[in-house]
Each structure stands twice: as structure tokens, then as C-alpha cells.
Amino acid sequence: ALGRSLSAEELALRERHVARCAACRVESEVVARLKNTDRPGPAPILDDLSRRRWIDQTFDRAERALAEEVAERAERRFPIVRVAAIAAAVILAAGAAFYLARGEAPAPTGASAIHLATRAAGKVLLVSGEVSVTAASDLEAGEIGVGGGIATGVGGAIAALEGGVLVRLAPETSVKVARSDPAASELRLERGAVFVSVDPNRKGRRFSVLAGDRAIRVTGTIFSVERGTAGDSVSVFRGSVAVEGPDGIRAVRLGERLAFGAAKVAVVGDDEKARAEADMDAMSALAQDGAASLEVESLPAGAIVSVDGTALGSTPLLASLRPGYRRLELKREGRESVRELLRLAEGARTARVFDLALAPETKEIESAAATSAGPPERPAAASAPQVPPPEELLATARDLRAARDFKGAVAAYERLVAAYPGTPVARAALVTLGQIQLEQGGNPGRALELFQRYLAAPGPGPLAQEAAWGVARAQRVLGDTAAERVALEAFLRDFGASGKAQGAAARLAELP
Fold first, then answer.
1. What does DSSP say about strands 292-299 and 349-355: parallel, antiparallel, or unpaired?
2. What is the largest CA-CA distance in the chain?
3. How far apart (Å, rounded) are the C-alpha atoms in residues 361 and 311?
4. Contacts of 388 (CB under 8 A, 6+ apart)
5. Do 200 and 220 meet the contact criterion of CB atoms below 8 Å apart?
6. Are 96 and 53 in contact (CB under 8 A)?
7. DSSP class per residue in 126-158
8. DSSP 201
């Protein structure tokens, strides 16, 4: 505003004021972030996602700083300070939108990774599909310790590490936290692929990804590292990295892809850009401090879960999200989407289970029969006018369950099972009905009967894992520890590679 640089006296006066004023400290940190001069990456949508996350974080930081200031000084002028700080945040956020549109803003950051508990090196923000942890980590508590790690199977995970680092693990990926201290963090990629977003303003803290005999050293950037059968590689979407290895140090800049050991870098492909955009979008949907937990399961598993239009992963899924109203959608190939509006409360866990088990071939067969030979014949039970077709009964049961009318849902599922015994849709309904009876109906005996009936039918069935797990849970509620032990041992024998195997083994160890 003065049109000139500040003098030494003016700089000293400013520093003294900033030391006393929480609002100005927030503003100074924000301005420091805007000084990053990285050029925009090859995927412009990343800049928009960075802007959106950065504005959210500006408000979060302002709120926390003001709360700390009030607690320390207990000043009566709190409303004035609060309004001034929020106004400054709004102005800065508006300026950031312009700055980021020019592609000169920093890469997105973990909202408050520096505030993680000192006993942990990071937080697990999302798990999808089959995910397990190694020693020094606790998946239930959502924490990763130094020396601990995460391994994904059919699914993925997102974690926030100390120092403003967000990491998304692709399917069939294993990582380990090799180091985490005030000077540096190191993540070892043992197999698979990771997508990484690093805060460029980490106050000198270094971050590296170790892959085989190479180390990828970064400042503020967005990049991915892959260890596959075709060899190892790194791709950069913002900023730059330095790859250190037996062949020296190689710089890889934005828009470049380096296969380790190759003489030249290549250009990042469109497919990689699209994956980067999807990964960045998923990271942007998550929250760390003040988060609400959402747990989603489906029958069968593997449905794609989206929240507010952003695809997060496949079921079963557990995610840390911002509290408030959220639009949940599940999509399985060949079926219509299932949607629900949720209200997520801070610090609480919201759990949902959806029945998506109507086999797609049912409609295809009926459609083909109608084309070639007129309307298909229905079972005698279905011809009675008082019994709707199975698809209608299933839709009614789903709607009632989504509305949390569990008594009505049980009646609809029971009617479906009784009217169309032996059909694929009725068999799948046995598992859903068993889960409702166990979790909401307070009838573990009926639930056990339904799960066992599913497993006794000819053929393994796509929901065999869910039914076997249901048997063990029902026996536990019934208090039959001997039968529960048998059920858990059978589950580990048949589904030892599933995501529930770790919990089954832990429960088995607790039994007398």
C-alpha cells in the first residue's frame, strides 16, 4: 500500500504486532504461502482443487488461532477481533482465488498435519476395500507410527503424514513410514503406486519417497511414484523432484515422467493426468481435525462410493469427512445408483449398509425372453395379484431401509424370500435380512438362521464372505462362544485374505 519496501524500524514494528495479534499471524502465514512461485501443472483442475482446499484451510486456521488467543488473553473485545480475522481470511481467500487461477499458488496441503499427536507419524483418513496395517500402526485409531505401514489389496487408502503430506495408496500397494522427526519424513514404497501432495511451506522439513535403491526428494509438489513389473517410475504434476540413485541425481519437472534408469524423461500421459485429478479430488473431500467418520458397506462388496459427487473408493469404506449434510451415492456396474442424504456429526461415526445384490443378468434374461417369445412366464407365486414381482419387492425393501423403517424393511424382505425361494434375488436377500435382524431387529437367532440358510444353498454365492462373518457375529451376540470359535476358524480358513480377517483373528485370540 505504501508503494515502497518497509524500513528496518517498520519491519520490527510489524513483527512485534504480529507476535501479539492472532489474526495477523494467520494473515502473515497465508501471505507466505502465496509467495511460492511454482508454475501451474499440466492438469489445470489441480489448481482449482488447490484453491478450494486452501480457502477451507484459511478459515480453519483463523478459527483455531482466534480460539487460542481468546483462551490465553480472555479479552473482552473478542467479537471485534473475530470479525476482523474472518474478514481478513475472506479477503485473502478471494485474493488467493485470483492468484491460484494464474497457477502460482502452492500445492494443496494437509489441513493441520503439524497438529498430529506426537506419538503418531500420521493419520489414516480413508480405507477402501481390503486394507491392513503393520506393526506400529493402529487402523482402528487411524494412526500410523514410525516403522509402521499400510498395505492395500483390492482397494486403496489415503493418509496424512506429519509435515503437510497427503498420500493416496493405489490397490495392491504397501508403504512403510521409515522416518518422521522435525527435520524430515521418509516413506518407503515397497510395492505398488502412491500419489503424493506435499505442502511447499513446511518450514524446512524435508520429505522423501524411498523406492528400491532410489530416493525421490521433494519440496512443494504433486507427484506419483510407481513400482511395477515393468519397472519403477516417477511422474510430476506440480513443482519438481530430485531422483537420487546409482546413476546420480536426476531432476524431474512438472509434466515429466521418468522411468528409473532411462536416459530421457517422457511426457505425463492423459490417463495419468486423469488419475491425478481423481486422486486430488478424493484428498480434497477428506478432513483431519474435527472430522466425522462415515462407514459404508454393500452387499456384495465392491460398489463405488461417492460423497458430494466425488468418488472416494469401493465398499467396504471408512472415511474422515467434514461434518454436515453430505450426499452419499453407491454405484455398482449394471445397476442403478443408490443415494442417501446424510447428516454427519463431528466426532461421531455414521454407518450404512446397502443391498445391491440384484443380479444384472436377471433383467437381461427377462428382456431377451420378452423380445423373442413375448412376456416371460413368472413363477406361480408371482402370478397372484397380491404378490408384486421380485424387483418391486426388493425396491420397496431398499427404500424402507434407507428411510430407517427397519420393521417395514424386514417385512418386505421376508415377503420376497417367501414368495420367490431359490431365486438369486431371494438368496441375496437372506444376507441383507440377516444383517437387519442382527443389527437393528434385535433377533440374532433369526439372523443366524438366515446366514446359515444362505451358506447351505448350492454354490458358493457372491455373499458367502458376508454370510460367514454374520454367522460368527450372531453366535457372539447369542453368547455361544464354542460355536463362535468354530465360525471364526471357518471364516479364517475360507476368507483369510479378506479385510475382516484381522478382526476375526483378534476376536479368536480373546475367546477362552
1. parallel
2. 94
3. 26
4. 396
5. yes
6. no
7. EEEEEEEE-TTEETTTTEE-TT-EEEEEEEEEE
8. -
User: pTM score, two decimals?
Assistant: 0.55
Strand order in the sheet with 310-314: 310-314, 304-307, 324-331, 338-344
Long-range contacts of 143-147 (CB under 8 A, 24+ apart): 143/117, 143/119, 144/120, 144/177, 145/119, 145/120, 145/121, 145/177, 146/121, 146/177, 146/178, 146/179, 146/180, 147/176, 147/177, 147/178
* C-alpha grid cell, residue 257: 515422467
Place of cell 541425481: 249
379 grid coordinates: 413363477
C-beta of residue 235 within 8 angstroms of C-beta of residue 256:
yes
- What is the distance between the alpha carbons of residues 41 and 239, in angstroms, rounded to a whole number? 7
Whole-angstrom CA distances from 489 to 58, 158, 464, 482 are: 51, 31, 15, 11
Tens digit of pLDDT for each residue in 372-382?
Answer: 334 444 444 44
Give the separation between CA 295 and CA 282, rounded to whole angstroms.
16
Cell of 48: 482449482
State whether the Cα torsion 37-39-41-45 is positive or negative: positive
Kindly report the three-state secondary structure assignment for every residue of 3-44.
CCCCCHHHHHHHHHHHHHCHHHHHHHHHHHHHCCCCCCCCCC
SS3 306: strand
CB-CB contact of 312 with 126 (8 Å): yes
What is the DSSP secondary structure assignment for residue 75, as one 8-state letter?
A: -
pLDDT digits (tens, 9 = 90+) for 352-369: 888 776 534 334 333 333
- H or E element that contains 214: strand 214-218
Q: What is the mean pLDDT of the chain?
A: 75
Query: Under 8 Å CB-to-CB from 427, ≥6 apart: which residues?
Result: 454, 457, 461
Q: How far apart are alpha carbons 232 and 235 in whole angstroms?
A: 11
